[in-house]
Every structure is written in C-alpha cells, then in structure tokens.
Amino acid sequence: MDKPGLTTDETGLTRCTWRTAAAQYPDYHDHEWGVPVADDIALYEKICLEGFQAGMAWITILRKREHFRRAFEGFDFRRVALYTERDVERLMADPGIVRNRAKIVSTINNARRACELVDESGSLAAWLWAFEPGTEERPALVDLAYWTGNPTSPASVRLSKALKKRGWTFVGPTTMYAFMQAMGMVNDHLEGCACRQPIEDLRRQFRRPEL
C-alpha cells in the first residue's frame, strides 16, 4: 500500500501523488520541480509566474507558460522593465496569458526592482539564495497534513518581507515558499519519492551563487 501522498506506477516507481493530477505534471515533477536554479532570468520568471498563480491552480499557469514567455520576451527583466502602459494594454488583450491588470503591472514593477537589485548586488540569484533555509528550518514532510492550507516557512517569510521592503509585489510568504520549492532552495519531494534523493544529490553538488 502506498504511503499518504505517494503513488507507485506500473513500472514500480513511487513518486509524489500530485504528479498524476494533470498531463503536464509528470515531466515537471520528475525533471524540474526542486532542481536548483542559479539563472537570474529563470528566477525572475518563476517569481512572476508564482505571482500570476495567486488564487489559481499552478497547472493553469504551467499550461500557459510558453505563451507567457513569448508575451514577456523570455522574462528578460531588463526588457520588461522598459514596458509602458501600451505594453500593459497589449498584454491585457492577450488571451494566452492570465489577463489580470494588477499581476501584469506587478511583473513590470518587479522587473524594475530586479534591475535595481542586480545593479546593486551584481546577481539576483546570489541575493535570493542567501535566503535558503538551514537544515534546522526545513519541515519534515511526514504526512499530507503539511500540504493543507497555505504552507510557509520562516525563510519564506523572511524572503517575502525583504522583497516587499524593496518594492516587489505579489511576493507573499506562501508564494515565496512555492518559489523556494520549485527552484530547489528546499527539497519537498516526499520521503519515498523516487526523485527525492536525486534532487538532494543535485542540491549537494550545486554551487550556491555568492554576493
């Protein structure tokens, strides 16, 4: 019998059950979720997409991700920082993305804040990875109770507060925890998931960017 939160497939591999919830999830779960990322543009993109997800299911954003990338010029934040009201109206008319004015404006605002941060510290990745939680802060995912409600962590609260202080928007603690999970700052593949140890190995080998 599978443990709570885990499902064994016909090949005998056990993975997190959420992997089976949509056709796009297996590849995302197996090859992307939790893999450490140090690329500034990829990190900015993920913050923005997590912001667009607020109040929605992640699968909705994942299905639209390629269109988001085209609409926002690959999430090159130096390009997005130059967007004007004309671009806001262009994006509001684009059915391939989530047409929420506040979230679109937030993406442009956050691009400008990202430029400021990089100009100041040299690297968005180094600044963000400085908030990686220590081992003592990482929650033990022993059952599905952890996944109920809106999960946060002390580290995601700190990151959220620091970003908001710098003027970023749509970066609440829950959103930032989801960001940390996806970008490999924590490994939340459940114990028993076939991906947990490979992700842990990648995290061990990963060279953290330094300020």
UniProtKB/TrEMBL annotation:
GO biological process, one term: base-excision repair
SUPFAM superfamilies: DNA-glycosylase
Record keyword Zinc present: yes
UniProt keyword list: Metal-binding, Zinc
InterPro entries per UniProt: Adenine_glyco (IPR005019), DNA-3mA_glycosylase (IPR052891), DNA_glycosylase (IPR011257)
GO molecular function: DNA-3-methyladenine glycosylase activity; metal ion binding
Pfam short name (any one): Adenine_glyco
Positions annotated to bind Zn(2+): C16, H29, H189, C193
Keyword Zinc belongs to the record: yes
Name of this protein: DNA-3-methyladenine glycosylase I
